[in-house]
Write a structure and sequence with these properties.
mainly alpha; 4 helices
């Protein structure tokens, strides 16, 4: 889960941190306004970007880009170790 990964990273900086102090589960009435804003944004302008993205990047192209990105990340790690 993402919250566990985030918590473990944060624990590196704050070893005494408890998980219960980081996350609250349940509904948030204050969150409704931002959720409504995101919904309006995604129905309007962002929808055009999604359509454009899906049309340009077929699954095969995305897989190829991910493979290239993976190779570049490994190359970066290799070069950092060489320094």
């Amino acid at each position: 889960m993402l919250e566990n990964a985030h918590f473990q990273l944060q624990q590196e900086a704050e070893p005494g941190l408890k998980f219960e102090d980081c996350y609250l589960y349940g509904t948030s009435t204050a969150n409704q306004q931002i959720e409504a804003w995101w919904q309006q944004l995604s129905k309007g302008y962002l929808f055009r970007w999604r359509v454009s993205f899906v049309q340009r990047f077929t699954p095969h192209k995305l897989l190829t880009l991910l493979r290239i990105f993976s190779v570049l990340c490994r190359l970066k790690d290799f070069l950092i170790r060489m320094i």
